[in-house]
Amino acid sequence: GVLTYKYDTDNWGYSHIVKWSDLVDREKGFIKDGKITVEIYFSIVKMTGFRRKPRFDFNSGNTQSDVILIIEGKPVHVNKHYLRIYSNFFHSLFFGEFANKEQKEFELEDVVYE
Fold first, then answer.
1. For residues 53 and 72, what is the distance between their CA atoms, to the nearest angstrom?
2. What tens digit of pLDDT does each residue of 1-53 get?
3. What's the number of CA atoms in the CB half-sphere (13 Å) around residue 79?
4. The pTM is what?
5. CA–CA dist 16, 102 (Å, integer)
6. Which residues contact 72 (CB under 8 A, 6 or more apart)?
7. What phi, psi does 27 have (nearest 5°)?
8. Is 23 exposed, middle or buried (0-12, 13-18, 19+ CB in 10 A)?
9. Which of 20, 26, 61, 88 is the most buried (most CB within 10 A)?
10. Residues 6 or more apart in contact with residue 67 via CB below 8 angstroms
11. Is the four-CA dihedral 55, 58, 62, 63 of positive or negative sign?
12. Of 66, 112, 63, which is closest to residue 90 (Cα–Cα)?
């Protein structure tokens, strides 16, 4: 038979979908050839708490990009403030003692463009 499951609490996972006693009851039809078979079909009606993966176009400049990295001759538009948070290399490149603070293009060698 069809079991409609509704879950109205903030919990990870399900407390139960079908009772164990129903699964092992031969009259319910879950046991065939000594094996329990369960098929579950579901649809997602609404999702909360999940962000979509952001889609960035690094090939052209936008309001967030402020420098261009040249990788294998190709321009990659990035935000230097964002990169420096996650990389000591970029922090030194953009804001280090010997960095040219006004430079807008940086060629990176030994980096593969994919």
1. 27
2. 555 555 555 555 555 667 778 888 888 888 888 888 767 777 777 777 777 77
3. 10
4. 0.50
5. 61
6. 111, 112, 113
7. -70, -25
8. middle
9. 61
10. 77, 78, 79, 80, 94, 103, 104, 105, 106
11. positive
12. 66
